[in-house]
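During the second year of the project, the team shifted from modelling isolated chains to modelling whole assemblies. The rationale, set out in the original proposal, was that interfaces cannot be judged from single-chain predictions alone. As a representative example for this report, we include one of the complexes processed in the last quarter. Its constituent sequences, exactly as entered into the pipeline, are reproduced here:
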Amino acid sequence: MTHLELATDHGAVVQLQALDACPLAIRGLTVSYGEKPAVFSIDATVEQGSMTAIIGPNGAGKSTMLKAALGVIKPLAGTVTVYGKPLDTQRHRIAYVPQRASIDWDFPTRVIDVVLMGLYRDLGLLGRIGRKERDLAADCLDRVGMHDFADRQIGQLSGGQQQRVFLARALAQQADLYLLDEPFAGVDAATEKAIIDVLKTLKAQGKTVVAVHHDLSTVTEYFDRVFLINVRKVAEGPVENTFTSENLQQAYGGRLATTQIDDLSLTAI
Amino acid sequence: MSGEEFVPLSLTPILIGVFTAVACALPGNFLVLRKQALIGDAISHVVLPGIVVAFLVTGSLAAWPMMIGAALAAVVAVILIEAIRRLGRIETGAAMGVVFTSMFAAGVLLLERSDTSTVHLDVEHALMGNLESLIWLDAYGWGSVLDPIALAGLPPELPRIFVTMLGVIAFTWLFWRPLKISTFDEGFAQGLGIRTGALGMALVIVSAIAAVAAFDAVGSIIVIAMFICPPAAARLMTNRLERQVGWSVVFAVLSAILGYVLAGYGPGWLGGDNAVSAAGMIAAVSGLILALATMFGPCRSRTGAPIEA
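Output from the structure prediction step:
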């Protein structure tokens, strides 16, 4: 499958090359929670080694798209391939960081136990957690600067610390593709810096990162590709020629004032 | 108290109480953490029509028809709850309320209208259990525990609840990791490929089996205390799930033994002459333990608790 012609929802025909090499390929994805579709006929191609931001207004289906790509939500239609193969055969290559707010942080468990959850696919039902696994978990906590918090109950952490623990758990999955749902939502500046450093290190190691992102002002600084969505796909491509005021206007409609867009350091206006 | 009196009259009820309490407390931990604690209540109510119908069909109170009838009723109820929730877009609590009350009422009506005078099945038994009557008449003392002839006369409820407890323990042990991960973070669990829907359903079915097996001991109303009180009290004792489950088992055993002993001998110590309901006393003791844990448990305030340096 080196040359494949697909009609996008805009009716344009695009040529996709080497689909089987790409970490995440979504075709014709439609998800609905009720009568109205949350995402409609989305095509997305995530490039190997890229850092992609999924951006769009509230309710645009950003998280839904990510969850459907992971099989957390069953789509009405569409296919998801991961490194050219069906999702279910490739789960070991994907790490997922859900939204922090979706969790009951009162749950009786320690930081280190949460990180060890990332090793479930290796351990299986009854595999024993040995020194090797503990060392790996401790190392992952170290990489997000949370080493000293290993024995804390998770409810005692600040929001930023909780987010770092989630990232450490994703690191413990030792995946190739990292999917993050609003990793910077409600975290302090130090945590934001720690997280972006870890993500950039992952990219430098040849891993692929996709994150739902809210803060338009940091898109050009953090990411090299963007995917704009508002139920339908608006645009997808390198930040330089895709993160434009025109596309933003189209994705956000009237909800983003022109002055706000002007304030963003857009590379191509 | 001598073995001659204790073994035939008190040993089997106490053991049945303990096994019941443990079988309910183990899944109770996950139900409480999933904020589904009332599912235990719903199950214990909805099994009643199943048990009555099983009796009407077979004409006996043998273990297996009763278990099967009750389990079928529980499964019907779970499906009804899901159907009402999904098709009617009604929140889970309301859907459960509708289903379990209706089915319980149907069970009570069936029970009143049918002739159950030949067996020990009446409304009081259904509501409060029958722990005191599960005695071991063939026993003559501690020696009977090793005597095959006496053992053959054990009340059939004892092996039944023992096997149920073993099954519950096996389920909890085998699926510990996915249960823990999916209870904590369902989205992440699904991302790992854990089938959280099936696992959640399995947890409810295991709880249903425990509730049905508990029917003899504590009836269909008080059993909810066995699902909720020990795990809820245990949560206040520790911040680790592994230890919470351990504490919940300790509390379950403690309430069963203390409850039975207090019900049987407490009124006598106070100068009264009649024993009170053992199931009621077990539930009261487990409620008391929860109250004490609420007041003195070391992990009462968790979120925002002062962080020791």
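Residues 125 and 219 of chain B are 6 Å apart (CA to CA). Residues 3-219 of chain B form a domain with the ABC transporter involved in vitamin B12 uptake, BtuC fold (CATH 1.10.3470.10).
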